[in-house]
Amino acid sequence: MRAFVVYVLKLLLSSFILFIAVLTVLFFLLELAPGDPVQTLVGDAPISPEFRAQITAAYGLDLPAWQRYFIYIGNVLTGNLGYSFGTNNEPVLDLILSRAGNTVAIALPAFLVSTVGGIILGAVAAKTRRKWLDGGISGITVGLFSIPNFWLGMLLIMLFSLTLGWFPSQGKSPYGEPGIAWQYAVLPVITMATSELAYKARIMRSSMIESLGQDFIDTARSKGLSSQYVLWRHALPNALLPMVTVAGYSLGFLFAGSALVESVFGWPGMGLLFVDAIHAQNNMVVLGVVIVLTVTIIVVNILTDIVYGLVDPRLRVRFTRKPTVAAVPKEAKA
Amino acid sequence: MTARDAIVVPTSEEPPELALTTPISNPGQRRSRASTTRAFLGKPATIVFLIVLAAIVTVSFIGPYLVGNPVTTSHPILHAPDLEFLMGTDALGRDYLARVVNGGRISLFVGFSVAFLCMTIGLVIGGLAGYYGGFLDAGLVKVAEFFQVLPGLVLALVAAALLGSNVWIIVAILALTMWPAVARIARAEAMRIAQLGYVESAKAAGFRGLRIIWSDVIPNALPPVLVATSMTVGRAILIESGLAYLGIGDANNPSWGALLNTAQGFMQTGWWLAVFPGALIFLTVLAVNILGDSLNDALNPTVGRVK
Lengths: 334, 307
Fold this sequence. Notes:
The structure holds 2 protein chains of 2 kinds. Chain A is mainly α. Chain A contains 14 helices and no strands. Helix content of chain B is 66%, strand content 0%. The chains are: A mainly alpha, B mainly alpha. Chains A and B meet through α1, α6, α7, α8 and α10 of A and α4, α5, α8, α9 and α10 of B.
């Protein structure tokens, strides 16, 4: 048990350091960005040097960079991500949280579809003895893996919305209505899930082949167990172990990829907020989304590593028992 | 279009993302150069996609001199593809074939130059880290973790938004975010090679570490590194097209992705505007990925069906 606590603490510490590293990079990018924030604030109107100095001081821009760096880190760690330059000067964190739910609403189904679909496709491709089936699945997965997914989204809109009229093409609900209507979510979820599904199927296939080649499979077969039993109870659980990590980490990439998918479908989530903020040069919102995204990915990754530690019997044994080194009797050596 | 390794090889006891030491090739199992070439070219799919890729590259770099001016606006507007305009015309009456061919040059340039930079940086840093270990090695692992937390697409979007977005900045940002994937393969190979007999004997003969890395480690680490690099080409093209689709890129020299950005507004009235550039991105990336897979199979004959 102690080993497990140490494992988790180490994980938390290194994640925290990573987070600070991300913040540092963001701060430097902001410092490198061309343009004068004070000039942006006052616009083209001529102002007296005294007034300019007053504004500069009000925003702390007269402080040296290293002081502003620590103020920035401190603010972020206390949940203050700054204020939007938009019409209402809303706090960035509130703005992001109001959009986050919409992103989760398509990212989570996409996660489930891609994980379950990828596992099934990969396992079938690995275990089948029909060459055409394995080849076909591998071909399809390489294909899906190579499609730019925003273009896939455009094709889906052209086919299913504009030509067949089955699903709406833009937004999350009929105009003016709150909430999310499921018809609006179908195409974005498919678009989001595709490349992840292909990636997971590829991993699952090689993991399953690897697992089927292990000695314990031969042992189980030679014990006389049926090949179905060996497949489901021995080969599959082993092949699924690396999928824990792949699936867990993919959640972060789904959130990151939402910028593209949400732009195609006009889906008002975090990704669209991010893209709109980039075009409006609303820098605090841009950085805010990256920070929220980073925190999400870090938390999901930590949970993934913990789950992996609990699921993998080899790691579980290491956590619960002291490693017992088989002592070699001295007499036997001689 | 995610920023991570081509294939995670799940053999180690550690979680795959920590298993940086897992070599992707099997020592001692390598084929001779001639038989590798034969294995690579043995599959019909490889030949087909080699031709496809060669055709796309050739047309993109020679084509601009053949297909006319991509900015001439004197044609009919939103004209559907026919024999005169093979890919139709856009909303300003420009010949779309000329624009698509021009866009290809930019997309391919970004893809291949990012891959070249990644391979160079990856070989140098991966080779040094794998051979020497220690501080450099720990640093490399940390950097790889960093880019796992901050996906390349997101970092590229932020950097391009804050610093501006010409082709060079995008190439630099993509190379900066994608080299760790190559470096960790190079590192794993360098660690393996550093244990081998010929490195031992080179050490015993008194050669310095850098000399050994240059003449023994890097040449022998090249095959798996080439496979990882080939995956980088496809990913860079995909990420660049995504950035351009979101409006980040050189507006005067639109790549395939930038053409798709414009096409978004004409999905109802001009299907060809969206179909052709996207299909070419897809074909190019598919060709690169399939060739990468074939290269991997040819270089690692033991990977594949076991039972």
